[in-house]
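Narrative of accomplishments. A recurring question from our advisory board has been how the design workflow behaves on a single, concrete structure rather than in aggregate. To address it, we present the structure tokens for one chain from the evaluation set, followed by the sequence designed for it. No filtering or post-editing was applied between the two.
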């Protein structure tokens, strides 16, 4: 292997490496002849909506529900629909995802380079070998396309606030377009928009003055609004609601609130979800709200917030901390279809007196030894990365405080959005910054070991 060539062309090495690893996993699944190895629960609804669109549906038709699903965001569903319409099918979509994720590895390397060129190659290589990225790029979901755009938005944000010289306008343009496009994949990025816009405004004002900060902030905001406005207008015309999706209420009432009760008070998720359903049906406006998915979502959101408030701040804080820890520590192997299809207890139904006992039972309670072995190996890897995270965070904050702060902010916002809902799938968006911190932590740990060995 020509290491000098790798040093001079790190982005090409990272892209090709990522591509080879992902295609190898794709080929491994292909040899089984089982299409379910490329699917998860969410894949089926996604595929159905794309098939409707491929048969002549329209995302912007204003003539009623049959033409579009108001909960589906346009970029991934259009991309999959085009693959189905053109005849390249699911495998074509998966190949596009593999290419997109390989490109994301290059962007992660560039993100690491904003903190220090020393981290660039290692961070890109870790991203190329990152199990979470590899597994999700080979599943028919919206996550990988969203991940690429979220990485691009984080890179633009870091460049906007971190670079001392050069025009800021191009970074503001990329930030506005990428975060807007990401929102057209998954609306979970929406809380990030005011955070990054406000943070960039403050930092740019302190570094370059009021007017440059305002100009760049307006540029980012206008581009973002231009991208998402057509979907909001479509929903307003059809449902009298500017919201981008109608999924928020269901997620809050039947996932976030029950898990908050589970982790925060010990009350089972199933019991809390049943109570939520009973109270929802008792609402005076329940029947009326069923006529519109957005009215139904608003009603569920209101009840979900009400029930969260009843649980109290202590339960909310505890459940968010538990959820954040799980999102960082759960091994990516738990979302591998071949592993998930082995009979085992669901994580949310696993019994245990503590969350650690619950996780341990979920990872190891199965008759199949392969299930236990693969999950334990994955757990060791995930915990190793988790241990390197604070070390890398401190290293980058010390050397490149603005870049480190921006990446830390992204991880914090992602964990805050996920709350108590935990899965490697939901961890994916923050893997960009996570990988950079792990790379910095790994290099720091190696330096410490080398210094220790020399002193002896």
């Amino acid at each position: 292997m020509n290491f000098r060539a790798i040093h001079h062309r790190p982005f090409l090495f990272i892209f090709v490496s990522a591509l080879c690893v992902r295609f190898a996993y794709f080929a491994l699944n292909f040899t089984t002849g089982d299409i379910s190895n490329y699917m998860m629960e969410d894949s089926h609804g996604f595929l159905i909506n794309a098939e409707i669109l491929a048969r002549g549906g329209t995302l912007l038709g204003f003539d009623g529900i049959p033409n579009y699903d108001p909960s589906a965001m346009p970029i991934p569903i259009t991309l999959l629909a085009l693959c189905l319409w053109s005849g390249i099918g699911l495998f074509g979509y998966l190949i596009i995802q593999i290419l997109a994720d390989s490109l994301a590895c290059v962007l992660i390397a560039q993100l690491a380079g904003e903190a220090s060129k020393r981290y660039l190659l290692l961070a890109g290589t870790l991203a190329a070998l990152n199990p979470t990225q590899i597994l999700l790029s080979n599943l028919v979901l919206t996550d990988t396309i969203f991940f690429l755009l979220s990485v691009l938005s984080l890179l633009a944000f870091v460049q906007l606030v971190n670079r001392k010289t050069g025009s800021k306008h191009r970074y503001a343009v990329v930030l506005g377009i990428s975060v807007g496009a990401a929102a057209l994949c998954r609306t979970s990025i929406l809380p990030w928009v005011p955070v990054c816009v406000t943070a960039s405004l403050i930092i740019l004002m302190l570094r370059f003055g009021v007017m440059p900060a305002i100009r760049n902030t307006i540029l980012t905001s206008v581009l973002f609004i231009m991208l998402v406005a057509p979907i909001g207008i479509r929903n307003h015309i059809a449902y009298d609601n500017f919201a981008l999706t109608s999924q928020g209420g269901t997620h809050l009432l039947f996932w976030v609130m029950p898990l908050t009760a589970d982790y925060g008070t010990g009350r089972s998720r199933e019991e809390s979800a049943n109570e939520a359903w009973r109270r929802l049906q008792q609402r005076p406006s329940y029947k009326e709200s069923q006529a519109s998915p957005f009215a139904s979502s608003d009603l569920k959101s209101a009840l979900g917030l009400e029930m969260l408030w009843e649980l109290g701040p202590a339960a909310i804080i505890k459940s968010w901390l538990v959820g954040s820890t799980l999102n960082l520590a759960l091994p990516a192997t738990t979302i591998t279809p071949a592993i998930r299809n082995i009979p085992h207890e669901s994580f949310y139904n696993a019994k245990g007196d503590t969350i650690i006992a619950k996780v341990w039972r979920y990872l190891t309670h199965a008759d199949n030894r392969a299930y236990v072995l693969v999950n334990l190996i994955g757990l060791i890897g995930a915990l190793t990365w988790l241990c390197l995270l604070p070390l890398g965070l401190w290293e980058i904050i010390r050397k490149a405080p603005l870049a480190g702060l921006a990446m830390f902010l992204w991880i914090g916002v992602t964990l805050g959005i996920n709350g108590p809902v935990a899965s490697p799938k939901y961890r994916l968006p923050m893997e960009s910054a996570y990988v950079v911190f792990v790379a910095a932590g790994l290099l720091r740990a190696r330096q410490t070991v080398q210094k220790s060995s020399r002193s002896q």
